[in-house]
Design the sequence.
């Protein structure tokens, strides 16, 4: 990438643009097999999942709806505060719906543990967890993804929607941030 002023803050590339594209298409195919005819609701967990969501829904041509919820727990740190805050709630009734939760990363598990409970309390018929990245080393809550794109090591990553302190979301690949960039 020629015109990037962020590449210098990236220690190494973990998942390339080409690998992302191929894996997201395979995930879309898998979800098609599972959800064709079931009119699922793709629920993007903002902000981090916005790019993955845009690519995944186009990779899975089932009749479906999209919805968004925004939750935040990292603030400006590289580890979870443990306090999950809804900053934009659901705008529609999800009673009886098959929900496909679209996450960028499953890390401590605090966000998804909270959300799965919340969606069931709001009447979801089923909740399927789809995450692009799974970082099992940091898990604090027993949450399992139904479908995960890549299992990654215990490093703080950015790009393809993932931020540090709101920055780097537009880096087109998944990279490990140089510790100097968040020190
Ligand atoms: O498994 P966990 O440890 O809970 O971490 C995963 C969550 O943390 C990040 O969101 P964040 O709170 O940074 O909000 P953002 O999506 O707006 O960046 C990420 O996008 C996931 O939603
Ligand atoms: O490694 C990460 N990077 C960016 N955001 C995150 N939220 C949880 N884990 C991460
Ligand atoms: Mg974040």
Sequence:
């Amino acid at each position: 990438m020629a015109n990037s002023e962020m590449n210098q803050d990236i220690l190494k590339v973990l998942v390339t643009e080409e690998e992302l594209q191929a894996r997201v298409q395979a995930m879309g195919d898998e979800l098609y097999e599972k959800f064709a005819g079931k009119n699922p609701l793709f629920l993007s967990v903002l902000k981090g999942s916005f790019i993955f969501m845009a690519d995944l829904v186009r990779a899975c041509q089932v009749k479906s709806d999209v919805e968004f919820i925004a939750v935040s727990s990292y603030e400006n740190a590289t580890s979870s505060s443990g306090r999950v805050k809804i900053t934009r709630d659901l705008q529609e009734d999800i009673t009886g719906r098959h929900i496909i939760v679209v996450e960028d990363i499953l890390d401590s598990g605090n966000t998804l543990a909270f959300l799965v409970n919340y969606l069931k309390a709001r009447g979801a018929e089923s909740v399927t967890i789809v995450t692009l990245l799974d970082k099992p080393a940091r898990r604090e809550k027993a949450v399992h993804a139904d479908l995960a794109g890549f299992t990654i090591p215990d490093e703080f990553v950015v790009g393809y929607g993932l931020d540090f302190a709101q920055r780097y979301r537009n880096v087109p690949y998944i990279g490990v941030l140089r510790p100097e960039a968040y020190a």
